[in-house]
Amino acid sequence: MKRADLETVLTHDGCEWVVRAEGIEARGGDWRELDESLRRVLAASGSYPPGSRIRVFMGFDFDTLPQWLRQYHYHYFNRWVEITV
Predict the structure, then answer these.
(1) At a CB cut-off of 8 Å and minimum separation 6, what does 55 contact?
(2) Topology given in CATH for the domain delimited by 6-84
(3) What is the pLDDT of residues 48-61, one digit of tens each?
(4) Tens digit of pLDDT for each residue in 35-48?
(5) Which of 6, 38, 40, 66 could potentially form a cystine with 26 if both were Cys, beta carbons 3.0 to 4.6 Å apart?
(6) Which pLDDT belongs to residue 66?
(7) Do 83 and 39 contact (CB within 8 A), yes or no?
(8) How many other β-carbons are positioned within 10 Å of the β-carbon of residue 28?
């Protein structure tokens, strides 16, 4: 399996999914919105030439869950996406 070009942390703030990595943050109410927000942020960062395909790993931050809820952590997950900037 190919490694990630970018590793991020995935959380949910109660309203939106949030992806953060060093110097970037993207938000969306659903996966489509989140992916589009991330595409815009990556394109604006200047770190990737236009047309680049970026393989992104979104690792869910289980520390954001209350301790009592962590037993149900299988409802949350990590996510892989490929974004073209």
Answers:
(1) 2, 3, 4, 5, 6, 80, 81, 82
(2) Double Stranded RNA Binding Domain (3.30.160)
(3) 999 999 999 998 88
(4) 999 999 999 999 99
(5) 38
(6) 64
(7) yes
(8) 16
- Asked whether the beta carbons of 82 and 64 are under 8 A apart, the reply is no
- The DSSP line for 54-79 is EEEEEEE-GGGS-GGGGGGGGGS--E
C-alpha distances out from residue 41 to 7, 44, 73, Å:
14, 5, 29
Strand order in the sheet with 53-60: 24-28, 17-21, 6-12, 53-60, 79-84
Direct distance between the N- and C-terminal alpha carbons of the chain, in angstroms, rounded to an integer: 22
Residue 32 is encoded by which pair of tokens?
A: 């489509």
What's the CA gap between 21 and 13, in Å, rounded? 16
pLDDT score, position 63: 74
